[in-house]
Amino acid sequence: MTMVLSDLKPFTKWTGGKRQLLGELRNNMPENYNKYYEPFIGGGALFFDVTPKDAVINDFNSELILTYKVIRDDVQNLIEQLKIHANNNSKEYYYGVRSADRDGRYEKMNDTEKAARLLYMLRVNFNGLYRVNSKGQFNTPYGSYKHPKIVDEMLLIKVSEYLKKSNVRIMSGDFKKAVADVSAGDFVYFDPPYAPVSDTSNFTAYTSEGFGIEEQGRLRDTFVELDKRGAYVMLSNSSVPIIHELYHDYADTTIIVGATRMINSKATGRGKVNEVIIKNY
């Protein structure tokens, strides 16, 4: 079910990453299951910790999924492109790279160049934040890191080897399509963009489409459907009234945990935020 691969971890920062919740998530996974599904893969903290041999991963962010595929298929050229960015890194250079989706250069890039651009920007920008405007243009400002690790060569090679050797299907699209073939005994972990904890923290811009209350409701319906199929389903989200209301049928298997949220740009807006892990088992 799993393979031993030491020091495997996410290859990039990603908003909503689950490194701090890994212990809780691992403790709440089923002991045995067939296939692993993660429809909102993001940085893949749990996925890389578990390293399943048979899995389906998906994200609506096509640029992120392209990067997973490039790491699997063209890691050496990706590393060389990242070294170019590392050797030229500066505030001015960053904004020049960022503007590629505004001046037509992005469309002319090959897949490896696009993936290197994304990984570079996430490594040096403010809080490693992926954010786009209504036109789908990357708009996160440059960060203030003194020595950002832009090229983690060994990690990229390890991730590439894992993705090549395992039966991991990499998809980009709607979460419901990613779980279309889930069967009884499979395990599905949902880590969607979280419901906001207040009106001022409505951060859903992982893609220009966002993920609002209607999507949260559609996800709940999918959770129930997978439950009826006999799959093991686990979901993490904010511990807010709307989420407890949506999943009230699973109140007996809902666990409230604390985790440090680092999305807010103001230090006073960060800190311990209650989150929930909801299961059907």
From TrEMBL:
Family as reported in the entry's similarity comment: Belongs to the N(4)/N(6)-methyltransferase family.
Highest taxon of the lineage: Bacteria
Higher taxonomy: Bacteria, Bacillati, Bacillota, Bacilli, Lactobacillales
Protein name (record): Site-specific DNA-methyltransferase (adenine-specific)
SUPFAM superfamilies (UniProt xref): S-adenosyl-L-methionine-dependent methyltransferases (SSF53335)
Molecular functions per Gene Ontology: methyltransferase activity
Natural source organism: Enterococcus diestrammenae
Catalysed conversion reaction: a 2'-deoxyadenosine in DNA + S-adenosyl-L-methionine = an N(6)-methyl-2'-deoxyadenosine in DNA + S-adenosyl-L-homocysteine + H(+)
Database matches in PANTHER family: DNA ADENINE METHYLASE
EC number of this enzyme: 2.1.1.72
NCBIfam families for this protein: dam
GO terms (BP aspect): methylation
Catalytic class of the enzyme: transferase
Alphabetical keyword list: Methyltransferase, S-adenosyl-L-methionine, Transferase
Gene3D superfamilies hit by this protein: Adenine-specific Methyltransferase, Domain 2 (1.10.1020.10), Vaccinia Virus protein VP39 (3.40.50.150)
Pfam family, one: MethyltransfD12
